[in-house]
Amino acid sequence: MDSPRNNEQARLSKWIDSLLSSSLVPSRWRMTTRTGSLLCDCGSIQYDLVVPPSSQLVEQTNAVCHCRDCVGFCLALPNGDSYLQNNGSFMVNFYKSDLQLVKGRDKLSTVRLYPHSAIVRIYCGECHTPLGADLVGAAPICLVNETLIHETYSVRFLPSVVLGYKDALHGTKPYARSVSVKWRNYGPLFLWKSIWRVIWGWLAGKSRGGFLENDYNRDFPVGLDGLKKVTTQ
Ligand SMILES: [Zn+2]
Ligand SMILES: [Zn+2]
């Protein structure tokens, strides 16, 4: 797992972190590691957020997504509507390696909305809080439900981006997979910054660890029908 290349990348990131936080840097530009935590409603699942300067070099990006995948996932969970903001799902983009699972591994529950989908949605099996989404595989980033970010961690990012769903797909598929990105609400800027975030993540070797701790070989359940069955038991 830890190839020589990964070790070199880890050393490079550490070096950048210490450089950016050192006293050689004038205080107004100095960057410190920012910390916080992610908790589900019942407290069974806890992640620590440790975001070093090398992650902050490329800002977090966030979006309120109105696609029926994101909204449908929330609404399939009991009290799911309380996790929506302006009827959309407010997601913040983190490097997986900046999330450390502290407790609740056995409570981590997952669902793919489609067979072979690269996106695995994560929720607490106990209280059914939607935690976010992991982009399975090589992608270094994951999406975290903004309402669960606690404590001193202040997310520094773009103004909220609103992604809308395409009505044309209504009725033909259980969910609408594509979202429309509008110029007037920073959509293209969001995509541009997200692309840079992914590229920087790869260069700096930030894909290790993460939301599901790279446990990508297990069989993830597929579809919200199964999810509803689980949550009404
Ligand atoms: Zn919980
Ligand atoms: Zn969405």
From TrEMBL:
Domain of life, source organism: Eukaryota
Protein name: CENP-V/GFA domain-containing protein
